[in-house]
Specification:
Layout (H helix, E strand, L loop, with lengths): L1 H26 L6 E9 L3 H14 L1 E9 L1 H9 L5 E4 L5 H9 L5 E15 L6 E3 H8 L10 E3 L5 H10 L9 E3 L3 H10 L4 E5 L1 H4 L3 H4 L5 E3 L1 E3 L11 H6 L5 E8 L6 H10 L1 H10 L2 E2 L11
Parallel strand pairs: 1-2, 1-3, 5-10, 6-7, 6-8
Antiparallel strand pairs: 3-11, 4-8, 4-9, 4-11, 4-12
Length: 297
Protein backbone atom coordinates (compact mmCIF):
# COMPACT_ATOMS: atom_id res chain seq x y z
CA UNK A 1 0.00 0.00 0.00
CA UNK A 2 2.80 2.41 0.92
CA UNK A 3 4.60 1.65 -2.36
CA UNK A 4 1.41 2.17 -4.31
CA UNK A 5 0.75 5.49 -2.53
CA UNK A 6 4.28 6.71 -3.20
CA UNK A 7 3.95 5.76 -6.85
CA UNK A 8 0.67 7.67 -7.12
CA UNK A 9 2.18 10.80 -5.55
CA UNK A 10 5.21 10.61 -7.83
CA UNK A 11 2.95 10.20 -10.85
CA UNK A 12 0.91 13.30 -9.92
CA UNK A 13 4.07 15.37 -9.40
CA UNK A 14 5.51 14.32 -12.75
CA UNK A 15 2.21 15.00 -14.52
CA UNK A 16 1.95 18.46 -12.95
CA UNK A 17 5.54 19.29 -13.92
CA UNK A 18 4.92 18.13 -17.46
CA UNK A 19 1.79 20.32 -17.69
CA UNK A 20 3.60 23.47 -16.59
CA UNK A 21 6.56 22.75 -18.83
CA UNK A 22 4.27 22.35 -21.82
CA UNK A 23 2.38 25.50 -20.90
CA UNK A 24 5.62 27.45 -20.62
CA UNK A 25 6.83 26.14 -23.96
CA UNK A 26 3.51 27.05 -25.56
CA UNK A 27 3.67 30.62 -24.20
CA UNK A 28 7.21 31.00 -25.53
CA UNK A 29 5.95 30.24 -29.05
CA UNK A 30 4.50 33.77 -29.26
CA UNK A 31 6.39 37.02 -28.91
CA UNK A 32 5.81 40.52 -30.21
CA UNK A 33 7.13 39.53 -33.65
CA UNK A 34 6.48 35.80 -34.01
CA UNK A 35 3.86 33.18 -33.43
CA UNK A 36 0.15 33.21 -34.15
CA UNK A 37 -2.95 34.98 -32.88
CA UNK A 38 -6.46 36.03 -33.85
CA UNK A 39 -7.65 39.60 -34.30
CA UNK A 40 -11.29 40.60 -34.60
CA UNK A 41 -11.95 43.79 -36.53
CA UNK A 42 -15.04 45.95 -36.89
CA UNK A 43 -16.40 44.92 -40.31
CA UNK A 44 -16.41 48.53 -41.53
CA UNK A 45 -12.60 48.59 -41.16
CA UNK A 46 -11.70 45.22 -42.66
CA UNK A 47 -9.91 46.37 -45.88
CA UNK A 48 -7.25 48.45 -44.11
CA UNK A 49 -6.55 45.66 -41.58
CA UNK A 50 -6.12 43.12 -44.38
CA UNK A 51 -3.42 45.35 -45.89
CA UNK A 52 -1.64 45.83 -42.55
CA UNK A 53 -1.62 42.11 -41.76
CA UNK A 54 -0.33 41.16 -45.22
CA UNK A 55 2.71 43.42 -44.83
CA UNK A 56 3.29 42.47 -41.19
CA UNK A 57 3.29 38.75 -41.99
CA UNK A 58 5.68 39.28 -44.90
CA UNK A 59 8.18 41.03 -42.61
CA UNK A 60 7.95 38.79 -39.52
CA UNK A 61 7.43 35.14 -38.62
CA UNK A 62 3.84 35.71 -37.62
CA UNK A 63 0.46 34.35 -38.62
CA UNK A 64 -2.60 36.46 -37.82
CA UNK A 65 -6.12 35.21 -38.38
CA UNK A 66 -8.45 38.13 -39.10
CA UNK A 67 -12.16 37.81 -38.34
CA UNK A 68 -14.54 40.67 -39.16
CA UNK A 69 -17.67 41.16 -37.08
CA UNK A 70 -20.06 43.91 -36.11
CA UNK A 71 -18.84 46.28 -33.41
CA UNK A 72 -21.12 44.71 -30.79
CA UNK A 73 -20.02 41.18 -31.69
CA UNK A 74 -16.36 42.22 -31.57
CA UNK A 75 -16.66 43.79 -28.11
CA UNK A 76 -18.60 40.74 -26.83
CA UNK A 77 -15.84 38.44 -28.12
CA UNK A 78 -13.32 40.45 -26.11
CA UNK A 79 -15.30 40.04 -22.89
CA UNK A 80 -16.00 36.35 -23.51
CA UNK A 81 -12.28 35.71 -24.10
CA UNK A 82 -12.83 34.56 -27.70
CA UNK A 83 -10.07 36.97 -28.62
CA UNK A 84 -7.83 39.40 -26.77
CA UNK A 85 -7.13 41.78 -29.67
CA UNK A 86 -9.78 43.83 -31.45
CA UNK A 87 -9.85 46.85 -33.77
CA UNK A 88 -12.70 49.31 -33.25
CA UNK A 89 -13.79 52.80 -34.20
CA UNK A 90 -14.05 53.66 -30.49
CA UNK A 91 -12.22 53.10 -27.23
CA UNK A 92 -13.43 50.75 -24.51
CA UNK A 93 -16.50 51.97 -22.65
CA UNK A 94 -16.79 52.14 -18.83
CA UNK A 95 -18.40 48.69 -18.49
CA UNK A 96 -15.62 47.07 -20.53
CA UNK A 97 -12.89 48.89 -18.58
CA UNK A 98 -14.43 47.80 -15.28
CA UNK A 99 -14.54 44.18 -16.46
CA UNK A 100 -10.82 44.13 -17.18
CA UNK A 101 -10.09 45.80 -13.86
CA UNK A 102 -11.84 42.88 -12.17
CA UNK A 103 -9.77 40.29 -14.05
CA UNK A 104 -6.63 42.38 -13.39
CA UNK A 105 -5.75 43.02 -17.03
CA UNK A 106 -4.79 46.50 -18.16
CA UNK A 107 -5.88 47.00 -21.80
CA UNK A 108 -3.42 48.72 -24.10
CA UNK A 109 -5.20 51.05 -26.52
CA UNK A 110 -3.33 52.35 -29.56
CA UNK A 111 -4.79 55.00 -31.85
CA UNK A 112 -3.85 54.10 -35.42
CA UNK A 113 -5.71 56.61 -37.60
CA UNK A 114 -8.97 58.27 -38.54
CA UNK A 115 -11.59 57.23 -41.06
CA UNK A 116 -15.19 58.35 -41.55
CA UNK A 117 -18.76 57.27 -42.09
CA UNK A 118 -19.88 57.99 -45.62
CA UNK A 119 -23.33 58.45 -47.15
CA UNK A 120 -23.92 57.03 -50.61
CA UNK A 121 -26.85 57.38 -53.02
CA UNK A 122 -27.88 56.00 -56.38
CA UNK A 123 -26.43 58.12 -59.18
CA UNK A 124 -29.89 58.49 -60.76
CA UNK A 125 -31.03 60.49 -57.73
CA UNK A 126 -29.04 63.45 -59.08
CA UNK A 127 -28.31 64.81 -55.60
CA UNK A 128 -24.84 64.77 -54.10
CA UNK A 129 -25.56 66.82 -50.96
CA UNK A 130 -27.08 65.83 -47.62
CA UNK A 131 -27.68 67.86 -44.45
CA UNK A 132 -27.16 66.11 -41.12
CA UNK A 133 -30.19 67.97 -39.73
CA UNK A 134 -32.34 66.11 -42.25
CA UNK A 135 -30.75 62.77 -41.33
CA UNK A 136 -31.32 63.30 -37.61
CA UNK A 137 -34.89 64.47 -38.20
CA UNK A 138 -35.58 61.39 -40.34
CA UNK A 139 -34.20 59.08 -37.65
CA UNK A 140 -36.47 60.75 -35.10
CA UNK A 141 -39.52 60.03 -37.23
CA UNK A 142 -39.93 63.15 -39.36
CA UNK A 143 -41.64 62.65 -42.73
CA UNK A 144 -40.86 66.12 -44.07
CA UNK A 145 -37.34 65.31 -45.27
CA UNK A 146 -36.51 64.10 -48.78
CA UNK A 147 -34.87 60.97 -47.36
CA UNK A 148 -36.84 57.81 -48.15
CA UNK A 149 -34.71 55.39 -46.15
CA UNK A 150 -31.33 54.78 -44.51
CA UNK A 151 -29.54 51.52 -45.25
CA UNK A 152 -26.99 50.19 -42.73
CA UNK A 153 -24.64 47.23 -42.89
CA UNK A 154 -25.69 45.57 -39.64
CA UNK A 155 -28.03 46.45 -36.76
CA UNK A 156 -25.11 45.91 -34.34
CA UNK A 157 -22.53 47.84 -36.35
CA UNK A 158 -20.45 50.85 -35.39
CA UNK A 159 -22.23 52.98 -38.00
CA UNK A 160 -25.61 52.32 -36.35
CA UNK A 161 -24.21 53.07 -32.90
CA UNK A 162 -22.56 56.28 -34.19
CA UNK A 163 -25.72 57.57 -35.89
CA UNK A 164 -27.96 56.68 -32.94
CA UNK A 165 -25.64 58.57 -30.59
CA UNK A 166 -25.61 61.55 -32.94
CA UNK A 167 -29.41 61.56 -33.05
CA UNK A 168 -29.73 61.06 -29.29
CA UNK A 169 -31.47 57.69 -29.69
CA UNK A 170 -30.95 54.55 -27.61
CA UNK A 171 -32.22 52.28 -30.39
CA UNK A 172 -32.72 52.62 -34.13
CA UNK A 173 -36.24 53.50 -35.23
CA UNK A 174 -38.12 50.73 -37.01
CA UNK A 175 -39.58 52.87 -39.79
CA UNK A 176 -37.34 53.77 -42.73
CA UNK A 177 -34.24 52.01 -41.38
CA UNK A 178 -32.92 48.96 -43.21
CA UNK A 179 -29.92 46.75 -42.50
CA UNK A 180 -28.06 43.86 -44.08
CA UNK A 181 -24.94 42.07 -42.83
CA UNK A 182 -22.01 43.72 -44.63
CA UNK A 183 -20.95 46.98 -46.27
CA UNK A 184 -20.74 45.14 -49.60
CA UNK A 185 -24.47 44.42 -49.46
CA UNK A 186 -25.24 48.07 -48.71
CA UNK A 187 -23.27 49.31 -51.73
CA UNK A 188 -24.96 46.75 -53.99
CA UNK A 189 -28.45 47.62 -52.73
CA UNK A 190 -28.02 51.39 -53.16
CA UNK A 191 -26.51 50.93 -56.63
CA UNK A 192 -29.60 48.99 -57.66
CA UNK A 193 -32.28 51.06 -55.90
CA UNK A 194 -33.06 54.76 -56.22
CA UNK A 195 -34.07 56.98 -53.32
CA UNK A 196 -32.15 55.14 -50.59
CA UNK A 197 -29.20 56.52 -48.62
CA UNK A 198 -26.51 53.98 -47.72
CA UNK A 199 -24.40 54.39 -44.58
CA UNK A 200 -20.98 52.71 -44.92
CA UNK A 201 -17.43 52.81 -43.61
CA UNK A 202 -15.31 55.05 -45.86
CA UNK A 203 -12.58 52.40 -46.03
CA UNK A 204 -14.81 50.20 -48.22
CA UNK A 205 -15.09 52.97 -50.83
CA UNK A 206 -11.38 53.76 -50.93
CA UNK A 207 -10.38 50.08 -50.98
CA UNK A 208 -13.29 48.32 -52.68
CA UNK A 209 -13.38 44.56 -53.12
CA UNK A 210 -14.05 43.17 -56.61
CA UNK A 211 -17.66 42.62 -55.54
CA UNK A 212 -18.06 46.32 -54.70
CA UNK A 213 -15.96 47.81 -57.50
CA UNK A 214 -18.47 46.92 -60.22
CA UNK A 215 -21.20 48.92 -58.42
CA UNK A 216 -19.23 52.11 -57.75
CA UNK A 217 -20.09 53.60 -61.16
CA UNK A 218 -23.77 53.59 -60.13
CA UNK A 219 -23.41 55.48 -56.83
CA UNK A 220 -22.44 58.95 -55.64
CA UNK A 221 -20.60 59.64 -52.40
CA UNK A 222 -22.48 62.52 -50.80
CA UNK A 223 -21.02 65.71 -49.38
CA UNK A 224 -22.30 66.37 -45.86
CA UNK A 225 -23.23 69.52 -43.97
CA UNK A 226 -22.76 69.16 -40.23
CA UNK A 227 -25.34 70.21 -37.64
CA UNK A 228 -25.12 73.98 -37.06
CA UNK A 229 -22.32 74.16 -39.63
CA UNK A 230 -21.98 75.97 -42.93
CA UNK A 231 -20.89 74.28 -46.12
CA UNK A 232 -20.98 70.77 -47.52
CA UNK A 233 -17.85 68.63 -47.38
CA UNK A 234 -16.93 65.35 -49.03
CA UNK A 235 -15.28 62.57 -46.99
CA UNK A 236 -11.80 63.17 -48.39
CA UNK A 237 -8.49 62.68 -46.63
CA UNK A 238 -7.87 66.43 -46.68
CA UNK A 239 -11.29 67.32 -45.23
CA UNK A 240 -10.88 64.72 -42.48
CA UNK A 241 -7.46 66.19 -41.63
CA UNK A 242 -8.83 69.73 -41.51
CA UNK A 243 -11.79 68.67 -39.38
CA UNK A 244 -14.39 69.96 -41.84
CA UNK A 245 -16.00 66.59 -42.60
CA UNK A 246 -18.51 66.04 -39.75
CA UNK A 247 -18.55 62.22 -39.57
CA UNK A 248 -14.89 61.42 -38.92
CA UNK A 249 -14.02 58.84 -36.25
CA UNK A 250 -10.77 57.61 -34.69
CA UNK A 251 -9.59 54.00 -34.99
CA UNK A 252 -8.03 51.95 -32.19
CA UNK A 253 -6.26 48.63 -31.69
CA UNK A 254 -7.26 47.33 -28.25
CA UNK A 255 -4.92 44.69 -26.83
CA UNK A 256 -5.98 42.78 -23.71
CA UNK A 257 -3.53 39.88 -23.94
CA UNK A 258 -1.89 40.74 -20.65
CA UNK A 259 1.60 39.82 -21.88
CA UNK A 260 4.10 40.88 -24.54
CA UNK A 261 2.55 39.00 -27.44
CA UNK A 262 1.73 39.64 -31.08
CA UNK A 263 -0.94 42.16 -30.07
CA UNK A 264 1.73 44.55 -28.82
CA UNK A 265 4.01 43.96 -31.81
CA UNK A 266 1.23 44.41 -34.37
CA UNK A 267 -0.10 47.58 -32.72
CA UNK A 268 3.42 49.06 -32.70
CA UNK A 269 3.82 48.13 -36.37
CA UNK A 270 0.55 49.79 -37.44
CA UNK A 271 1.33 52.90 -35.38
CA UNK A 272 4.87 52.98 -36.75
CA UNK A 273 6.28 54.38 -39.98
CA UNK A 274 5.35 51.49 -42.30
CA UNK A 275 1.86 51.02 -40.87
CA UNK A 276 1.12 54.74 -41.05
CA UNK A 277 2.24 54.84 -44.68
CA UNK A 278 -0.22 52.04 -45.44
CA UNK A 279 -3.03 54.06 -43.83
CA UNK A 280 -2.00 57.20 -45.71
CA UNK A 281 -1.95 55.34 -49.03
CA UNK A 282 -5.38 53.83 -48.31
CA UNK A 283 -6.99 57.28 -48.28
CA UNK A 284 -7.59 57.37 -44.54
CA UNK A 285 -5.85 59.75 -42.15
CA UNK A 286 -2.82 58.44 -40.22
CA UNK A 287 -2.06 59.56 -36.69
CA UNK A 288 1.29 60.83 -37.90
CA UNK A 289 1.94 61.71 -41.51
CA UNK A 290 5.15 59.85 -42.44
CA UNK A 291 8.03 62.09 -43.45
CA UNK A 292 9.37 62.26 -46.98
CA UNK A 293 13.09 62.16 -47.65
CA UNK A 294 14.25 64.27 -50.58
CA UNK A 295 17.50 63.36 -52.28
CA UNK A 296 19.05 66.51 -53.74
CA UNK A 297 21.83 66.04 -56.24
Amino acid sequence: MKLSLRFSILFVVLLTSLFFCCKKASSSDESILKGGTTIIVDETLRPILEDQIAVFESDYKAKIVLNSKSEKEASNALIKDTTRIIVLARELNDAEINYFKKVKIKPKTTKIGTDAIAFIANKKDNDTLIDMKDVVSFMKGSTTTKIKGLVFDNPNSSTVRYMNTLAGLENSPEKGIFSFKTNEEVVKFVAENEGMIGVVGLNWLYQPTPNIRKYLANIDVLSVQGIDKNGFFAPTQNNIAEGTYPLARDLFIINCQGFNGLGMGFASFVAGDVGQRIILKSGLLPVRVPGRKLLIK
